[in-house]
From TrEMBL:
Coiled-coil stretches: none
Gene3D superfamilies membership: TonB-dependent receptor, beta-barrel domain, TonB-dependent receptor, plug domain
Family note: Belongs to the TonB-dependent receptor family.
Organism superkingdom: Bacteria
UniProt keyword Signal, yes or no: yes
Signal sequence range: none
Protein name: TonB-dependent receptor
Native organism taxonomy: Bacteria, Pseudomonadati, Bacteroidota, Chitinophagia, Chitinophagales
Record carries keyword Signal: yes
Residue ranges occupied by any TonB-dependent receptor plug domain in the UniProt entry: 44-154
Keywords: Cell outer membrane, Ion transport, Membrane, Receptor, Signal, TonB box, Transmembrane, Transmembrane beta strand, Transport
Main location: membrane
Membrane topology: Multi-pass membrane protein
Subcellular location(s) of the protein: Cell outer membrane
Length: 630
């Protein structure tokens, strides 16, 4: 296993070394403008935040795949279930933390799930990639700007907006393994002071058996899955300074699922849908801007299982008013206030019939100060004061300095704290615990980024440590508080252009974590507990624009050893999972107004691996199709 990790690391570094003596295009990203780091436009050179940008070109080279697939190829992120049946739930493990510690945004607004099944983070199965323009990934604790769930990081999914001409028609049609069929169609355009985008996506597949069949009888049935997604956005330039953007996003899916590890079921069915609607507003000032965001979100889940029927209705309300202003050319200030409310109705799992609808809310004023370009020095100082309806008042902070040497070398560091309240499900369901305490976190981060060989090589190295007190976990069918969770890790990322039109990307990520809790003897017990999260992951991706019309790429990703929990009612046991390596490839040919593509996954048809113990994984699978825009 150690040999495999060394080979991957050596391969990544070798890919960078090839850029030393060859010509290539510039890859420096310091001048790239991003929005997620500070909630307003800012160059990456002016912030010490660790950001990854997945641009429109990369999104376009992932036809036939999903948002979860794309995120699963990023350093420090592991998507549990990415190689399982398409209907299997996708869990976001970000720097060793579970889904509940990651905030997922859609155009800067949190897309929450008050049902609490993934901690408040939206189910990735609700997000069709066809409606995505780009993705910005912000690593590290960011609760000062983005609230209580942003302890591990933030994923900002930026959707497609209006075009530059009155009418633009676009879409795709994809067919793949297991009788998978996906189609999307959209209209986008601009006329006078109004722009618009509306698109629809449908996906269906027969799938595979969700549970692994080790009986040898072949009786396990396929667990099918289908989904729909509608995205509509209108931009109105009401005045020279005021822009309004109402939006509506609706997604649903239906899936069959099995009874657990190695357990088939021909009855279990699920129907879920999500509504995300609201309005964004921006008023430009001479040296800044004022932003107002409001969103209403509703998620419903209707399950039919061997044990009966359940219905869950979660609703979330979000309001955020903030502004930023340039006091001087080197000093900026931002201030705002955020309101959140969540409601949950559960007809089966809430213990007390009289109180099947529960709610909690918070109000959070926050302030951030930014120093920029002081002879290469930059600094962010921020604080948020959260007034929570059930868990009192909490203060969180961010200290984030950075320094850029001659636009070639950047060093950065961060100390940030976080606060997270228990979800309504963890408090009040039949598995809940009303005595749960809120979680407190402090994270530390430091690293460097350099651009070598005439900006032909981009190398970033980051180390982090995260401590969470009173961490909430679901163990043996019960939510509990641990005394403390400590995680640490390192991420190495390389982007190089050894020759013209050739891009080589690689990463190696290491993460480890341990929990401390009171043992049966009354003494503290400490042990490693990163379930389904490997200590080591690594990836090499090579993309080549062979001609003006032909693009090819290949990706090899290694996932190291990890443990899983095998539930045997009423207890569970640890199971060690072996490492595995996945090889994928993509080919695209541009016909002008249309593109045809072929996407092959798990080319070696590796079937001897567990992603989640007791659940089947995909062997070789492929998708091919056409996308168009005119």
């Amino acid at each position: 296993m150690k040999k495999t990790h060394l080979v991957l690391t050596a391969g990544i570094l070798a890919a960078g070394h090839t850029a030393q003596s060859q010509d290539s295009t510039q890859v420096s990203q310091l001048n790239t403008v991003v929005v997620t780091a500070t909630k307003f436009n800012k160059k990456q050179s002016e912030t010490g935040k660790v950001l990854t940008i997945i641009g429109p070109q990369t999104i376009g080279h992932n036809m036939g795949r999903t948002v979860a697939d794309v995120l699963n190829e990023q350093a420090g992120i592991v998507i549990g279930g990415a190689f399982s049946n398409p209907g299997k739930n996708r869990e976001v493990y970000f720097r060793g933390a579970t889904s509940q510690y990651t905030t997922i945004l859609m155009d800067g607004i949190p897309v929450a799930d008050a049902t609490g099944l993934t901690g408040n983070a939206i189910d990735l199965r609700f997000l069709p990639i066809d409606q995505v323009e780009r993705i910005e990934i912000l690593r590290g604790t960011s609760t000062t700007l983005y609230g209580s769930d942003a302890i591990a990081g933030v994923i900002n999914i930026i959707t497609k907006k209006g075009g530059i001409k009155p009418v633009n028609v676009y879409g795709d049609l994809v067919y793949g393994s297991n009788r998978s069929l996906k189609g999307s169609a959209g209209l986008r355009g601009k006329q006078d002071n109004v722009d618009y985008n509306i698109s629809f996506t449908h996906f269906t597949t027969d799938g595979i058996s969700e549970a692994a069949d080790t009986t040898g009888t072949g009786d396990f049935d396929r667990d099918g899955y289908s989904s729909n997604g509608l995205n509509a956005t209108v931009g109105i330039q009401a005045t020279e300074n005021l822009r309004l953007q109402p939006f509506l996003f609706f997604s649903d899916y239906k899936s069959n699922f099995d009874g657990g590890s190695f357990v088939d079921s021909k009855l279990n069915k699920n129907k879920s849908n999500a509504l995300h609607s609201g309005i964004r507003a921006q008023y430009d000032l001479s040296k800044g801007a004022i932003f107002g965001n409001f969103a209403y979100q509703k998620v419903t889940r209707d399950d039919e299982t061997d044990w009966g029927k359940t219905f869950t209705d979660g609703r979330a309300y979000y309001g955020d008013l903030y502004g930023h202003y340039d006091i001087t050319s080197w000093f900026q200030v931002m201030a705002g206030a955020e309101y959140r409310k969540s409601e949950l109705t559960d007809t089966a799992n809430f213990k007390d019939v009289k109180y099947r609808t529960r709610e909690q809310h918070s109000i959070s004023p926050y302030v951030a100060l930014f120093l920029k370009n002081l002879h290469g020095f930059n600094m962010e100082l921020g604080g948020r004061y959260t007034l929570h309806s059930q868990f009192g008042n909490q203060f969180t902070y961010t200290i984030n300095p950075s320094y850029v040497f001659s636009d070639k070398f950047k060093v950065f560091a961060s100390v940030a704290s976080g606060f997270k309240a228990p979800t309504l499900t963890s408090l009040y369901s039949i598995y809940g615990n009303k005595d749960l305490k809120a979680e407190d976190a402090v994270s530390y981060e430091a690293g460097a980024q350099t651009f070598l060989f005439n900006n032909k090589l981009d190398l970033r190295v980051v180390g982090f440590r995260r401590n969470i007190k009173n961490q909430i976990s679901y163990i043996n069918y019960k939510y509990i508080n641990y005394n403390q969770q400590k995680d640490k890790g390192v991420e190495v990322e390389v982007i190089a252009h050894p020759i013209e039109n050739l891009t080589v990307k690689g990463f190696y990520a290491y993460v480890d974590g341990e929990v401390t809790t009171v043992g049966g003897s009354g003494k503290d017990t400490t042990y490693s507990n990163l379930i389904r999260r490997p200590n080591h992951t690594g990836q090499i991706e090579i993309g080549f624009q062979a001609t003006k019309k032909l693009f090819v790429s290949t990706t090899v990703k290694h996932t190291g050893t990890r443990n899983d929990l095998f539930y045997k009612f009423p207890q569970s046991e640890y199971v060690a999972l072996d490492p595995y390596t996945m090889w994928n490839a993509y080919v695209e040919y541009n016909l002008g107004k249309a593109r045809v593509f072929f996407n092959a996954n798990n080319i070696t048809n590796n079937k001897k691996y567990w992603e989640i113990y007791g659940y089947a994984t995909l062997g070789f699978n492929m998708q091919s199709g056409v996308s168009f825009s005119f």
